[in-house]
Amino acid sequence: MKKSENREFRTARGYQILNQREGMLTSSMEDYLEMIYRACSSGGYSRVGKVSELLHVKPSSASKMIFKLADMGYIRYDRYEIIQLTEMGEKTGAALLNRHMIIEEFLQLIGSPNALEETELIEHSLSSSTVENLQSLIDYFKSDPQAVDQFEKIKQKTVAL
Fold it and tell me: What is the pTM of this model?
């Protein structure tokens, strides 16, 4: 039996459930924490209404997720609806935003027609080592303009097929 035949395959949702059981943040939790990090970066805190507005969700939905993130130790939340990041939340939020920015920059580099939407769809499923490799690839293209030109030529040939 080949090595690839011996692996346990799951659906995307199956991997999400497995990760959640291991105490990892869900995709939705990551989206909230990243947005809370963005919102808190300018003023040191945010509010439920602001987070719900930024994510285009109902305040009641935002409140439920905020309670979950507070229970997990990522944020502090008080009765006046003030949200502040804990040290762990600050660290994780910064990493989530950095991941987002790297993926979006990569997708822009390769000519994605809607880099933001595609970033939101795929960012949760990439490992940190894959994101680091994407950053290395971005750095390579930035350091070698000829590589960008070669990539564009190859891309045009591929599109022509």
Answer: 0.83
